[in-house]
């Protein structure tokens, strides 16, 4: 196995914290405002009411293995 390969964290139950609600940051397609939307919440901009939202890209490195 390659030593530079991605290795996920192996934190056990001792490192477990209470689950927090899944809040995602979205960008409004009309006005560009940042909106935080939780699960089961209406997808609508809080500034202008527009319904088209873009999901923000993750800041962490994402690596895929090609076949």
Q: Which features characterize this protein?
A:
67 residues, mainly beta, Rubrerythrin, domain 2, 0% helix, elongated
Model description:
This protein has a domain at 23-56: Rubrerythrin, domain 2. The protein is built from no helices and 3 strands. A 3-stranded antiparallel sheet has the order 2-1-3, with no helix packed on it. With 67 residues, the chain is mainly β. Strand 1 (23-28) and strand 2 form a beta hairpin. Helix content is 0%, strand content 21%.
Cα radius of gyration in angstroms:
18 Å
Average pLDDT metric = 80
What's the CATH topology label of the domain at 23-56? Rubrerythrin, domain 2
Overall helicity: under 10%
CATH homologous superfamily (4th level) name of the domain at 23-56: RNA polymerase ii, chain L
Q: Given the helix and strand composition, which structural class is it? A: mainly beta
Alpha plus pi helix count: 0
**Major pleated sheet:** 3 strands, antiparallel
Strand percentage lies at 15-25%
Across the major sheet, the strand order is 2-1-3
**CATH architecture title of the domain at 23-56:** Single Sheet
- The separation of the N and C termini measures 15 Å
User: Can you tell me the residue ranges where pLDDT is under 50 for at least 5 consecutive residues?
Assistant: none
Q: For the record, what CATH class of the domain at 23-56 applies?
A: Mainly Beta
- Spell out the helices and strands N to C: EEE
Chain-wise SSE layout:
Blueprint: E1 23-28, E2 34-38, E3 53-55
Antiparallel strand pairs: 1-2, 1-3
GO molecular function: DNA binding; DNA-directed RNA polymerase activity; zinc ion binding
Keywords: DNA-directed RNA polymerase, Metal-binding, Nucleus, Transcription, Zinc
Family: Belongs to the archaeal Rpo12/eukaryotic RPC10 RNA polymerase subunit family.
